[in-house]
Amino acid sequence: MTAQDEIEALLSQVAGGDRGAFRRLYAAMAPRLYGLALRILRDEMLAQDILEEVFTGVWKDAGQYRGALAAPETWLVTITRDAAIARLGVERAAGRMAGPLEITERLYATRPETEDLAGMRDEARALEVCLRELPRARADMLRHAYLYGATYDDLARSAGTSKTALRAAVRTDLVQVRECLSR
Amino acid sequence: MNAQLDTGLPGGAEAGAAEYSLGLMPKAEIAAFEAQLAVDTDLQQDVAAWTEYFASFTDIIPAETPPPQVLRRIEGQVFGAEDRRPVWRQVLPYLVGAVAGAAIAWVVLTSGLLETPAPTLGADLAGAEGLALDARFAPATGVLTVTLRQGDAGEGRVLELWLLPEDGAPVSLALLRDAETLVAVPPALAERLDGARLVVSEEQPGGSPDGRPSGDARAEGVLVGQ
């Protein structure tokens, strides 16, 4: 059984109300999801809230997982990312947290090095290779949107360009990346 | 197609699927996009593919062990409401342990641990320099709970837990960064835990560089039936 199959099996047991499976799923996935929430929110209490939100949701909604459309880990990562980004939005709107582009080192902290490529799984490597065909700053915008919830407004302000122009450029980039990924 | 694609922007629905998956799609366009998504299987596959790719952005983010109370809070929420047994019946087996009364009450209210079948394997791990831990394995859940009782790793070092099978190479089980660490033991390994020797070594921050315990064991013990 691959790790993937195992997570999937655990999810279906959790959907059936299996508490042991729930704890195994937690032990298997919580560190990765907590690491992700911490990276996005940079706050342990908030990240713990997110983990709580995600796993209580998983207990209720594990039956909604559809294997055909997403790998089980991706499903959990996506739920966690979305919850963390939503919380980040709330914290920012309340003025308790800085905007996504005010800390420029974040731009550089998340980009893998060339020597890391070999160790990546296929999807990650393919995406990374294709992103390298884009201007570096624009590839970073995609990371920024995903990992820090940057909006077109944020990105345009930081790039000093109009939102419309930036969006057109990003969409063109995305089509190019999609073509690259299909090769 | 739908309104959001008529904005004169390049990329059409394909770029829209990527924007949606990235979280870049402007809020005003999301409802129309999702309406389309609900009926368009090609678009669903596009979103699924992008979601898979973009989720890989998170691969390089290091995992972090959440503090043990998070699982307790979660279990309190998801299992708590379902407990119907009288509290004293749930608590009784646990009174045997030398735990302070206040702590027990807190565990009862918040942990959901009471639903765990009694751990059937346990080990006290001790070493010459005063490091003490205990390990409890619950076969029903496959989770090994390791609690640090006394001592810690040296400055800038980390404790690593190993399973030393009678035959074969040591198996790294976890880095023990917190007072309590939960380890999901793979079923194949779980079968070999009865009588197995657990060893704690001290390692550089990322763990042992060569997949074997470094130096002398800081603590060790044998898992036996409880």
Structural description of this entry:
The complex is a heterodimer of chains A (183) and B (226). By secondary structure, chain A is mainly alpha-helical. Helix content of chain A is 72%, strand content 0%. Chain A contains 9 helices and no strands. In chain A, helix 2 (19-41) packs antiparallel against helix 3 (44-61), helix 3 (44-61) packs across helix 4 (72-93) and helix 6 (122-131) crosses helix 9 (163-182). Chain A starts with a helix and ends with a helix. The model of chain A has no long low-confidence stretch (mean pLDDT 86). With 226 residues, chain B is of the alpha+beta class. Chain B contains 7 helices and 9 strands; from the N terminus they run H-H-H-H-H-H-E-E-E-E-E-E-H-E-E-E. Chains A and B meet through helix 2, helix 3, helix 4, helix 6 and helix 7 of A and helix 1, helix 3, helix 4 and strand 6 of B.
In short:
The complex is a heterodimer of chains A (about 180) and B (about 230). Chain A is mainly alpha-helical and about 180 residues long. Helix content of chain A is about 70%, strand content about 0%.
- Continuous helix count of chain B: 7
Principal-axis shape of chain A equals globular
Structural class of chain B: alpha+beta
Q: Which protein chains are joined by the largest interface, and how many residues does each one contribute? A: A-B, 62 and 50 residues
Compressed to H and E, one letter per element, the order of chain A equals: HHHHHHHHH
Low-confidence stretches of chain B: 1-6, 82-118
Could you give the distance between the termini of chain B? 66 Å
> What series of H and E elements makes up the topology of chain B?
HHHHHHEEEEEEHEEE
Largest beta-sheet details of chain A: none
* Low confidence ranges of chain A: none
What is the overall number of helices of chain A?
A: 9
> How large a portion of the residues of chain B is in β-strands, by DSSP E?
15-25%
The overall pLDDT average of chain A reads: 86
**Strand tally of chain A:** 0
Strand order of the largest sheet of chain B: 6-3-2-1-9
Q: What gyration radius of chain B follows from the Cα positions, in whole Å?
A: 25 Å
* Major sheet summary line of chain B: 5 strands, antiparallel
Rounded average pLDDT of chain B:
77
Shape of chain B: elongated
As an assembly, this protein is heterodimer
